[in-house]
Write a structure and sequence with these properties.
254 residues, elongated, mainly alpha, three-stranded antiparallel β-sheet, Fumarate Reductase Cytochrome B subunit, single chain
């Protein structure tokens, strides 16, 4: 924990420099994939044709798209491999797995929003919304990688699989790309930029730090563990569901 020199607020490191760099890499590769992929899907638009021409033609666009896909795959693989190694070595626990508590947290928050509960859910390192975003993008990204590889090497693939797999892969690749785009644009980015907690921009993933005040509101269970406390008092039924939950150690991320 340290204090912001400008504001004097206590700040807690949530993400290491490696995780911050990883996030920047995923942002850049995703932007390249969106730009070079969506212009191919909506090739009839004037903007797409302008982009393709300025990239030197459709062949260059496809080449950039494919190699950006390779970079994206390496980033996904690195994320999963580092997480698995950390869990296997006991460095941290699998805090990104969905548990029963996530369902109860979602229900409690809905009750809180409608005035049926006196407080929001007490979340740990990652809340249910963060887990939903992570798994949607991870699973969707792996599907994009597989279908993209099929479209890149159709002749090789059809030596082992029926030809129908090619149009199937094309439909999956294109539609899944739109789903990931919508999730990033309408959920992740808007939530990070326009969320009342982080407006005008949630800088945690860019700096690695989060104020203690926000930690107390958004991740009280993790904060209590970091500071060596017992955590916020919970109703008995919530304490039962929390026992045995996989949690992450400070400065760890899955």
């Amino acid at each position: 924990m340290r204090r912001d020199r400008d504001r004097g607020d206590a700040r807690i490191r949530r993400f290491s420099r490696l995780r911050v760099a990883e996030h920047w890499g995923i942002i850049l590769s995703t932007l390249v994939l969106f730009a070079t992929g969506l212009c191919q899907r909506f090739w009839n638009l004037e903007m797409s044709q302008w982009f393709i021409l300025n990239m030197g033609g459709i062949d260059n666009v496809r080449l950039v798209h494919r190699y950006a896909g390779v970079v994206f795959f390496l980033q996904l693989f690195s994320n999963v491999a580092v997480a698995a190694a950390g869990v296997a070595r006991g460095k941290w626990e699998a805090s990104m797995f969905v548990t029963r508590k996530d369902l109860s947290d979602a229900i409690q928050n809905m009750k809180y929003y409608f005035g049926l509960h006196d407080r929001p859910a007490q979340c740990d390192r990652y809340d249910y919304m963060e887990k939903f975003e992570y798994w949607t993008i991870l699973v969707g990204g792996l599907l994009m990688v597989v279908t993209g590889a099929i479209l890149w090497f159709p002749i090789l693939v059809t030596r082992f699989l029926p030809g129908e797999v090619i149009p199937t892969a094309k439909a999956l690749h294109s539609n899944e790309a739109m789903l990931i785009f919508v999730i990033n644009a309408l959920w992740h980015i808007l939530n990070a930029v326009f969320s009342p907690e982080g407006f005008p921009l949630d800088t945690c993933i860019f700096t690695g730090y989060l104020s203690r005040e926000r930690m107390a509101r958004e991740h009280p269970l993790e904060l209590a563990r970091i500071e060596g406390g017992a955590g916020p008092e919970q109703p008995e039924e919530e304490r039962k569901e929390t026992v045995g939950m996989p949690v992450a150690k400070p400065e760890s991320v899955v």
